[in-house]
From TrEMBL:
Listed name of the protein: Transglycosylase domain-containing protein
Source species: Aureibaculum flavum
Annotated metabolic or biological route of this protein: Cell wall biogenesis; peptidoglycan biosynthesis
Annotated region (Disordered), positions in chain: 719-742
Family to which this protein belongs: In the N-terminal section; belongs to the glycosyltransferase 51 family.
Keyword Transferase appears in the UniProt entry: yes
Length: 742
């Protein structure tokens, strides 16, 4: 009887062995689909994320189809390798790709007896094969077919790669959830540092995530992650990589993350959109010329941009510190009175437009922006619209006027919840238009000391339109320099009426503005629409001697192994790019320095301490709907704008809503700690224009009338005339001394 049982057992085992042999043979020869060849394994290439760096080599973000950054074995800390081997494949350095004992355990327990607690039994090689090519569905045989294929590939990997190469390839392919692939990307995501700097306990967290990257995600499930980390540390002690004392010490360390998701919380996400557009155009030309197929998403390029991260961070801090205060003030204004009535009318109008009036009070969980951080709350549709309408938006752009290189690009208050880029928003540019008008006057020979009438003005040809000054003053005459510095409206309209509109329109287009310039006197006060982007280009021409520059975002593009495929030399513009004369740019810059020193921009120096030579102009659109400020040195042009999405939502007065109070602080706060880096002297006035600004800002009447008044006024003695003459001379000398000191 025993012989019969033994006979049947031998026959059964033989048949089973034959069946297994046939099954494995069928897999090997492709019955269940081909197995990748050695040549294909050699040619395998990970898709890698493109890294985007600032000009000072700081990581700004990535472009990717798969968020992965490949690293070399030399970059991997020894304790990371130890943690991986101890936890995932203790006999890694002993086997030839497949651990026979583990494989038999899986065969008999997992497959035959359906005992899932026995583990996967896969070596690092087998896991790598799975990461490289994934798994396919083969019905009830899927597990056995896929495991067998991975075993064959594991052996093949051993033939062509060293143990170190396999570990490197594995760690570059392994997924960590959150659309993160590879150990370097995971290190950057969860600890905000390169893998070389990872500590033992941090390495244990990352290795622990390999078992189940969501369940052991330290951000989502910190308790699970800590328990799993301690398991990995126990494995390190078990296989004598660390002592029991070190293990106990590390297990007692609290879980500490420095989570950095650049895709949603990066310092320059609005800017990265522009970078990607520029890179794609560059690669399109490069691929066409070189018969290649490089992409910004898959080929692990290294892009160095023009952006200065220090200046960018200063701007981000300025946004938070200033706009958080102004946002509170605006919301407080709309809590009651006529402002609340206006807001309720706008909410009703928006509900009707969206056809949601009958659902206005329905509550839903919504992601909301605040300066304390984005949060989720259950609020009604009505309240959601109210918050959206009263939200202050802002943008700030800084360029190097000599080359067009973008140094700072803050396109909004929060890229995640407010993705529209305010740099391109078309709004009325208010008094920031005036320098363009005055430049046109200078081009036609009107000098800074030419006087402009400030008498009350009614223009009958345009429905009796009557411009007024900010302070409602009238009478007398302002020098052109003073009228610009003090942003006087009536003299500015008189200048507009005395120069050919065709000349102004041509200059508007030459400076790169795309909207039509309305042919009516109100345009002199800035009723034309433009954007921060266009205004920055125009002011760059004022700063660089009269040339139009094209904003640029990319300095260089390299392949992952360091080959340069594109380099921007950042050349200065040529004479073909000239849009105004050098003398006009010098005179206008002197006038706009006067606007900072004596006019509407004085708080830039008085309050924010920007005591470098700087020119600028504030702008406040009608009824305080938008606040603007544009400032520049020969090294930097910076333009900011602040306003709600609807022009109907605005501050009630200039105390909060003027350009000097709402937009200027963004520039002032940004420059406070870096002003010396962008300090440079403006070109001196040409010899023939040395006294071009040495005149009285204001005369009671025209020089002609003043002459006759002095001639016939008997009380006007020669001594008094000489005293007034001496006073005017002293003022001129004082202004000269101030300009030299700056």
């Amino acid at each position: 009887m025993l012989k019969k049982i033994l006979k049947y057992l031998i026959i059964s085992l033989t048949l089973l062995a034959v069946l297994i042999g046939l099954f494995l043979t069928s897999i090997y020869y492709g019955v269940f689909g081909p197995i990748h060849t050695i040549e294909e394994l050699k040619a395998f290439k990970n898709q890698t994320a493109t890294l985007v760096l600032s000009e000072d080599d700081e990581l700004l973000g990535k472009f990717f189809s798969e968020n992965r950054t490949n690293i070399k074995y030399e970059q991997l800390p020894k304790h990371l390798i130890n943690a991986l081997v101890a936890t995932e494949d203790a006999r890694y350095f002993e086997h030839d790709g497949v651990d026979s004992r583990s494989l038999l355990r899986v065969l008999f327990k997992t497959i035959l007896f359906r005992d899932k607690s026995s583990g996967g039994g896969s070596t690092i090689n087998q896991q790598l094969a799975k990461n490289m090519y994934g798994r396919k569905n083969h019905g009830p045989l899927s597990m056995l077919v896929n495991k067998s294929k991975e075993a064959f590939l594991a052996y093949r990997l051993e033939k062509i790669y060293s143990k170190e190469d396999i570990l490197t390839l594995y760690l570059n392919t392994v997924p960590f959830g959150e659309n993160v692939l590879g150990i370097e990307a995971a290190s950057r995501r969860f600890f905000n540092k390169p893998i070389e700097e990872i500590k033992i306990e941090e390495a244990a967290i990352l290795v622990g995530m390999l078992k189940a990257n969501t369940y052991y995600n330290p951000r989502i499930y910190p308790d699970n992650a800590k328990r799993r980390r301690n398991v990995v540390l126990t494995q390190l002690e078990k296989y004598n990589y660390i002592t029991a004392k070190i293990k106990d010490s590390l297990q007692n360390i609290p879980l500490q993350l420095d989570y950095a998701n650049l895709e949603s919380e990066g310092p320059a996400n609005y800017f990265l959109v522009q970078v990607k557009d520029e890179v794609n155009k560059i690669l399109e030309d490069y691929n066409s010329e070189n018969n290649t197929e490089l992409t910004s998403n898959k080929d692990g390029l290294i892009i160095t941009t023009t952006l200065n991260l220090q200046l960018q961070n200063q701007a981000l801090n300025a946004f938070k510190s200033h706009l958080s205060v102004m946002q509170t003030r605006l919301r407080k204004q709309y809590h009651s009175g006529n402002s609340l009535k206006t807001l309720n009318k706008l909410i009703t109008k928006e509900l009707n437009r969206l056809k949601l009036s009958d659902k206005a009070n329905e509550k839903q969980n919504r992601e909301l922006f605040s300066w304390d951080g984005v949060y989720t709350d259950s609020i009604s549709i009505r309240d959601s619209i109210s918050q959206s309408l009263t939200l202050l938006h802002a943008g700030l752009l800084a360029l190097d006027p000599q080359t067009g290189a973008v140094k700072t690009w803050v396109g909004g208050i929060d890229f995640g919840t407010q993705p529209y880029d305010q740099i391109f928003a078309q709004r009325q540019i208010a008094s920031t238009f005036k320098p363009i008008l005055y430049a046109s006057g200078l081009e036609q020979g009107i000098m800074p000391c030419s006087y402009l009438d400030n008498k009350s003005l009614i223009i009958s040809d345009f429905d009796n339109w009557q411009p007024s000054n900010y302070d409602n003053s009238t009478g007398g005459n302002y020098s052109m320099a003073a009228a610009l510095a003090k942003s006087m409206n009536i003299p500015t309209v008189n200048l507009f009426l005395n120069i050919p509109f065709a000349n102004l329109e041509k200059l508007w287009k030459d400076l790169g503005f795309t909207s039509e310039l309305p042919k009516k006197p109100s345009v002199a006060l800035g009723t034309a629409n433009s954007s921060i982007y266009e205004l920055s280009r125009a002011y760059s021409a004022f700063a660089n001697g009269g040339y139009l520059v094209e904003p640029k975002t990319v300095l260089s593009i390299k392949t992952g192994d360091g080959n340069i495929i594109y380099e921007n030399k950042l050349l200065k513009p040529s004479e073909n790019d000239r849009v105004i004369s050098k003398n006009t740019s010098i005179l206008l810059s002197a006038m706009l320095q006067k606007a900072i020193n004596e006019g509407t921009g004085t708080s830039l120096k008085n309050k924010y301490g920007i005591n470098i030579p700087i020119a600028g102009k504030t702008g406040t659109s009608q009824d305080y709907a938008d606040a603007w400020f544009a400032a520049y040195t020969p090294k930097l042009v910076m333009v900011s704008r602040v306003g709600a999405s609807s022009p109907s939502i605005r501050f009630n007065s200039g105390t909060n809503g003027s350009g000097s109070k709402l937009a200027l602080p963004l520039v002032g706060k940004t420059l406070q700690n870096v002003k010396k880096q962008y300090s440079a002297s403006f070109p001196p006035l040409p010899e023939q224009y040395a006294d071009a600004l040495d005149c009285e800002d204001y005369l009671e009447d025209s020089k002609f009338n003043l002459f006759f008044e002095n001639l016939f006024n008997k009380n006007n003695t020669t001594l008094e005339k000489e005293q007034r003459k001496a006073e005017r001379k002293a003022k001129r000398e004082q202004r000269r001394a101030e300009r030299k000191s700056n």
